[in-house]
Design a protein that fits this description.
2 domains; mainly alpha; Tetracycline Repressor, domain 2; 9 helices; Arc Repressor Mutant, subunit A
């Protein structure tokens, strides 16, 4: 059962109702923002009664929590596919393409996540929500170093570097959404790439 849900939607009809509620919540957040989002607005957008909403969720925040998890699952699957494709093509860490793709994936959900980051800081995109993709990225970077030992400088602590990179990528992603930095996507992607490669080499990185 998803986070915050009162009733386990095990039946197909129940699953369809929950899907409608989540979709309607996304629509309301896009058009009205967090402050204009309510269970009444969600029910109206979903075409169901308010009572039907309360069968599954206690309030709008519980709905939004589940919606955020769904978004992160989708974002993880999308970016994970990009990672796998880069590995298969041999282009992993050849340039800033993956960093650009990461920010582009976030842009798909900007209207929802940006509103929540600015208007509902208590509903955070916490670390546990991005842990799967972060673990995959760390595994791939370890594999990259194993296959390309010359890519890492002498004396570089890979575990420490991975910790710094994980936190840095997460915080840049959040700030990218919070401040709407779409016009600087390529520059930010390049800096993230330079930071990654510079960290591996043990050298200095370029700034924006």
């Amino acid at each position: 059962m998803g986070t915050g849900q009162r009733k386990d939607p095990s039946q197909q009809r129940s699953q369809e109702t929950v899907a409608r509620i989540l979709s309607a919540t996304g629509q309301v957040l896009r058009t009205k923002g967090y402050t204009g989002c309510s269970t009444n607005a969600i029910a109206e957008a979903a075409g169901i009664s308010k009572g039907s909403v309360y069968q599954y969720f206690a309030n709008k925040d519980e709905i939004i929590e589940v919606l955020i998890d769904k978004i992160m699952e989708d974002a993880t699957a999308t970016f994970g596919a990009n990672l796998e494709q880069a590995v298969a093509k041999g282009t992993f860490l050849k340039d800033a393409a993956l960093q650009t793709q990461l920010l582009a994936v976030l842009d798909r959900y900007r209207d929802i996540l940006g509103s929540l980051l600015n208007d509902a800081p208590h509903l955070t995109l916490s670390a546990h929500r991005s842990v799967r993709i972060e673990e995959r990225c760390r595994d791939l970077l370890r594999t990259y170093v194993t296959l390309n030992p010359s890519a890492i400088g002498q004396g570089v602590d890979l575990d420490a570097l991975l910790l710094v990179l994980t936190v840095s990528y997460r915080e840049v992603s959040l700030e990218y959404l919070r401040r709407d930095l779409r016009d600087r996507r390529n520059e930010l992607a390049t800096v993230l790439y330079d930071m990654t490669m510079g960290g591996l080499a043990g050298g200095a990185t370029r700034g924006v």
